[in-house]
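Blinded run. Sample ID left blank on purpose so nobody reads anything into the name before looking at the predicted structure. Input follows.
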Amino acid sequence: MAILVNFKIRIKADFYINQKQAQLCSHKNIIHDIIDDSRIRLNVFQDGYDGCVWIVHQNGKFFEFTLTDSNYGMNNWKIEIKNNNAYCTNKEKGSIFILEAGSLYKYYKIKNKETGQYLFVNSNKKRDSWTYYIDLTLSEEMATDFYFEIYHE
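Blinded prediction complete.
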């Protein structure tokens, strides 16, 4: 993988909703997504607009993901894994991830460095007809493959 420092990207899942490729997102305007003032649930959304553009910060072989380009007041929110949950937080530092080769060409599994858990789209946790929630798994087979697409404004 090329070095991805401060590129705006869309993180697309190998998961389709209504025949559209889902994108990793977080939305502060949905009441069901809010855990508390500093944590919002992570999801995949069928159409990636606000809340679906990320900046990847790379430090060696480790990565941190920061939400940007959001109309929901979530700029600089980071993905965090804590207590077996995946969410966005407004803390200064987020969780650190490792990218492992996915099942498909140019796709990656996103693995938390500290817990060894992978992100996966939980098809049993549907928020609405456009959105599913992200959960965690230790199983590489259950982990969702993600594609990183450079975002052009």
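Unblinding after everyone has recorded impressions. The CA atoms of residues 13 and 146 lie 4 Å apart.
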